[in-house]
Design a protein that fits this description.
The complex is a heterodimer. By secondary structure, chain A is an all-alpha fold. Chain A is built from 15 helices and no strands. Classes of the chains: A mainly alpha, B mainly alpha. Chain A: Keywords: Cell membrane, Membrane, Transmembrane, Transmembrane helix, Transport.
Chain lengths: 296, 330
């Protein structure tokens, strides 16, 4: 104990200049309140519209339009809006589509990425890699019209078709994110399992897939946000009103509210609420996951 | 078992068909330079387990069916006069000729490019500023990060409806109160100003993701560089332009390409705010393809437009690639 303290004391005493510099940085680490104020003011551009949505949703039509709190809280707006856009059905559709799209993406895209990442030295797999990645650069509007027609002719103009499209259209990006990660997993792990007699599929499910945890989280978060919030795909694929997702229902029924803006806002708030609630609780996790995808 | 070998053979056949000029420099296993009798391959001769083909090949087939086949179909339809149903005839390049004489299409392209540039510039300027601030010595850092990321989690269409109302009622009221002429009327109904809300919404929603990429970039910067700079008495402005910005250069490139790509496909914002109006002045190319192709009976004509759009975007991507790769050499 005493020896340890003396070593530290002597070590710091031999480097007085470094110590002084360190002290200087201590000082520098003080919070910059001016910058904090600027950041806080800027954050109002995000918070004020959200606040406006909440208070407007709770007003009477006559009161709407100002930023003040409602004089009487109109909770009935939510029930009325819910009935007009058939919210429970739309929410159920969105939930089913999102959950299945995320699970199927995780279960399928990962092993495609694994097969390609482990065989990049073979010409065929390298070709496949570019084959999948190239599609990332084909803008969606280019295939939109023929795709909508084709999905209709295959009777896939429903939730099932939409789920399939999310799984397929996401493959390029997911592959891009996952291959780098898989290649950082040492091959020796697999070789040991192979000697023990495990096949490639078994190795993937038992060893690789569990190790892909962080990247799977990234893929899951990004796919979930995309499938839940997407408007263009449901718009061109879903033909039956009973299959509508939340954003599509907002679009289709937007004229229902006429000038009853508080009811419309109640509907918008209900459309945004599920993601916002999840985000409030899993905020760190969501931001971290998307950031990992951004850095790749 | 037979089908398994079939898949393997098909795979091998494809392997042979492929040209040799694929870049192999980054290949995991260094290639042997020894020339072979029939074909000189830079790829390894290692035997690949069949299971790997079973993992990748079916996915490739499904991928082709849902993406590449529609793409080719689209190209074929663009040479017909199809309305999306019923009989049609081949009409050669007539659709393409008509596109070049169509003022509405020309305006959509011009409008798309102008707002894409505005959106890209604004998003990157704001995101750079915010990410540096959020990475700085501020209080309640994680809370602010969480707030700034909220727009990314919202559906553009839904928050777009919220902004539509804000642009229609409270904002003109504010304009009147302040006596600002151009703000006293709704921006959405003005032919000259309707682009502003669209750009605003795209920026409002798009900044979040760019901030995240820049933050990821800033975290790769070694703080010792700043300590050294601080000893040299560098001011904040110099610190950003001489140290931070060059160090996060690659992230700037990624952001420019990504935001530009998203901005060129602007669609939800237009549907939510203006529906292409007033007087078709705010139609983007994507909006026009959807509107004309799926609801306006111009199916083949708009597929031709889509093919043209693809060519234009490919050229832009190529220029970006050339520009940035030449810059990175410096």
């Amino acid at each position: 104990m005493t020896t340890a303290t003396t070593t530290i004391a002597s070590a710091s005493s031999t480097r007085p200049s470094a110590d002084a510099a360190h002290m200087k940085f201590r000082k520098d680490r003080r919070i910059n309140w001016w910058l904090t104020a600027v950041v806080a003011v800027f954050s109002l551009t995000i918070l004020v519209p959200l606040y406006f949505t909440v208070v407007t949703a709770l007003k009477t039509p006559a009161e709407a339009g100002s930023f003040s709190l409602p004089s009487s809280w109109q909770w009935g707006n939510f029930a009325a809006a819910s009935a007009k856009v058939d919210y429970p059905r739309a929410a159920l559709n969105s939930a089913i589509i999102t959950v299945l799209a995320v699970s199927l993406t995780l279960v399928t895209n990962t092993f495609v990425a694994y097969a390609i990442a482990r065989n990049m030295d073979k010409r065929f797999f390298r070709f496949l890699y570019y084959f999948f990645i190239a599609a990332m650069f084909v803008p969606f509007p280019v295939v939109m019209l023929p795709l909508a027609k084709q999905m209709g002719s295959w009777h896939l103009d429903n939730q099932a078709g939409l789920i399939i499209l999310y799984v397929i259209l996401g493959l390029g990006t997911n592959l891009f994110i996952a291959t780098g990660f898989i290649r950082s997993i040492p091959v020796s792990l697999e070789e040991a399992a192979r000697i023990d007699g495990a096949g490639t599929w078994r190795i993937f499910w038992k060893i690789i897939f569990p190790l892909m945890g962080p990247i799977n989280a990234t893929i899951a978060i990004m796919t979930a946000l995309w499938a839940w919030n997407d408007f263009l795909l449901p718009l061109i694929i879903l033909t039956d009103q009973s299959n509508q997702t939340i954003p599509l229902a907002q679009y289709v029924f937007s004229s229902q509210f006429a000038t009853n803006y508080p009811q419309a806002f109640a509907s918008y708030l209900m459309a945004m609420a599920p993601v916002l609630v999840v985000y409030v609780f899993a905020q760190k996790w969501v931001v971290g996951g998307v950031m990992r995808g951004a850095v790749k | 078992m037979t089908s398994l070998t079939n898949a393997d053979q098909q795979a091998r056949a494809m392997e042979d068909v492929l040209a040799n000029d694929i870049d192999t420099r980054r290949s995991r296993r260094p290639a042997s330079k020894t020339p072979r009798k029939r074909k000189a391959s830079a790829f390894s001769d290692r035997k690949v387990d069949h299971a790997y083909y079973w993992m990748a090949v079916p996915a490739a087939v499904i991928f082709a069916v849902f993406l590449y086949v529609p793409f080719i179909q689209g190209v074929l339809y663009s040479f017909t006069n199809s309305q999306g149903y019923g009989d049609y005839d081949w009409i050669g390049f007539k659709n393409y000729m008509a596109l070049f004489h169509d003022g509405r299409v020309g305006h959509a392209y011009l409008f798309t490019f102008l707002i894409a540039i505005a959106i890209t510039v604004l998003i990157n300027v704001i995101a750079l500023f915010l990410s540096v601030a959020l990475n700085g010595k501020i209080a309640w850092k994680n809370g602010f990060r969480a707030i700034y990321f909220i727009p990314y989690t919202l559906a553009v269409l839904v928050i777009g409806y919220v902004f539509k109302y804000i642009f229609m009622q409270p904002l003109p009221a504010l304009g009147k109160a302040l006596g600002i002429g151009w703000l006293s009327e709704s921006l959405l109904t003005s032919e000259r100003h309707a682009w502003i809300p669209i750009v605003f919404l795209a920026v409002w929603q798009g900044v979040a993701y760019s901030v995240l990429i820049y933050l990821a970039g800033l975290q790769t910067v070694d703080t010792q560089v700043y300590e050294a700079a601080a000893i040299d008495g560098v001011n904040a402005w110099q610190k950003f332009w001489k140290i931070t910005f060059p160090l996060i250069g690659p992230f700037f490139t990624i952001n420019l390409v990504l935001t530009m790509k998203n901005a060129l496909g602007t669609f939800d914002q237009v549907v939510a705010l203006t529906d292409g109006g007033p007087n078709s002045k705010t139609e983007t190319v994507t909006y026009l393809i959807w509107k004309g192709g799926l609801t306006g009976g111009e199916y083949a004509y708009q597929t031709a437009n889509a093919v043209l759009f693809f060519i234009v975007l490919a050229i832009i991507a190529f220029i970006q690639l050339k520009f940035f790769s030449s810059k990175e050499k410096v």
